[in-house]
Design a protein that fits this description.
This protein is an alpha+beta fold and 90 residues long. Helix content is 39%, strand content 21%. The chain is built from three helices and four strands; from the N terminus they run ααββββα. Strand 1 (26-30) and strand 2 form a beta hairpin.
């Protein structure tokens, strides 16, 4: 991380922009303006804890949800929250 920060600083660009360029960040032309497209990662949500130290009888340590097919970060977050609340209600 320190090396990535140092390289971004040496190029005079924000860290997120530098990391995006390392991993194939795309450029989009909108009208006369050219801007980089950035995406947020798919969120991973811990929805149920178990194991030896939990107050439940679940044998697994934790269950995680990762809404991979969501069209946006907002939709992925909403999907994860809906799954959590549906499981909690049952």
């Amino acid at each position: 991380m320190a090396a990535a920060r140092a390289e971004a600083a040496s190029k005079g660009e924000p860290l997120y922009q530098h990391i995006a360029s390392l991993y194939g960040g795309r450029i989009s032309a909108q009208g006369s303006e050219t801007r980089a497209l950035y995406t947020l990662p798919t969120p991973m949500m811990n929805i149920l804890n178990g194991g030896a130290h939990a107050d439940t009888s679940v044998d697994f340590q934790e269950f995680m949800v990762m809404p991979v097919g969501a069209a946006s970060f907002e939709e992925a977050l909403r999907t994860g929250a809906e799954i959590f609340h549906a499981l909690r209600a049952s």
